[in-house]
Amino acid sequence: MQFLIQTLSIILPFLILKSKSANVNVLWINDKSTGLIKDSVDIALDYVKKKNNVVVTSLESVMMNGNDIGNSTDKVCNKLKTMLDEGRSPDMILDTTSAGTLSEVVKSLSLSLGIPTLSTSYGDLRDVREWRNLTSDQGKYLIRVRPPGDLLPNIIRNIITSDNITNAAVLYDDSFVMDYKYRSLLQNIPVRHMIQKIRTGKNELKGQLMRMSQVDLNNYFVFGSVKTIEEVFAKANEMKLYGTKYAWFSITKVHSNNIIYSVNK
User: Fold this and answer.
1) What fold does the segment set 22-146 form as a domain?
2) Could you count the other beta carbons within 10 Å of the beta carbon of residue 158?
3) Looking only at Cα atoms, what is the longest distance across the chain?
4) Are 58 and 45 in contact (CB under 8 A)?
């Protein structure tokens, strides 16, 4: 949430200048995979209002569902129509969709309608197809700021390059959006690798780690919550996946000085 507060604080005043009004109607479009709740957005907007003397006249929201793209698109269009009919056309779209088709739908709408938009979606420039070829003017009001969770996985590239690692197993849970990274994460790096979502259930996780070990993947990068990392490392210890043959790395969004993980005898 701190990322959202800081981003809105910096970017929102510029988008307000574009709308030529300090009284703004905000349309917030989210998807279920982000886990972002309305309280977080309210707190972030509250902070921005106090700091920048912005009046958010209304905050409308639409929750999209990646399993129902057609219905989700209709919900956004209907919400836009309702706001227009009521004389509350959106001065700004806050796009917190993560990635994929739903996120592209939002960007296509904001681009075609010319509505100032702040997006915190994941991916590099190639992954955001609808905004790939913005003009210089469009780039002033269609703004995307990549969240920390999108940049963290790039740590892998630095570790692999600096340590001359030739194989890697990348595991992740729902706290990281990694689906779109299959193509680009380790692109142009000579490393044999697999990228998989962590299986739930002890037997499934054991089978997953066993299959990776059987194809001689010995360097493990685990992206996840504290609970997920603990479960993976406990299973690795149980399977004796430790010693000089193996290397384990864990990456989490949780900030703490008291988290210690180890895979060893």
Assistant:
1) Rossmann fold (3.40.50)
2) 9
3) 67
4) no
Q: Give me the mean pLDDT over the 47-70 stretch.
A: 79
Any residues with CB less than 8 A from the CB of 88 and at least 6 apart, and which?
25, 57, 58, 60
Cα angle 165, 195, 243; round to 5: 45
How far apart are the C-alpha atoms of 29 and 61, rounded to whole Å? 6
150-252 CATH choice from 3.40.640.10, 3.40.50.2300, 2.60.40.420, 1.10.1520.10: 3.40.50.2300
Distances (CA, A) of 123 to 7, 154, 206, 210: 17, 11, 31, 31
Q: What is the per-residue pLDDT across 209-263, written as a single tens digit (0 to 9) for each? A: 999 999 999 999 999 999 999 999 999 999 999 999 999 999 988 765 555 555 6
Supply 93's token pair: 């779209």
pLDDT digits (tens, 9 = 90+) for 145-195: 888 778 888 889 889 999 999 999 999 998 887 876 666 788 888 999 999
pLDDT at site 192:
94
Angle between helices 101-113 and 69-85 (to 10 degrees): 30
**Separation CA 75–CA 69 (nearest Å):** 10
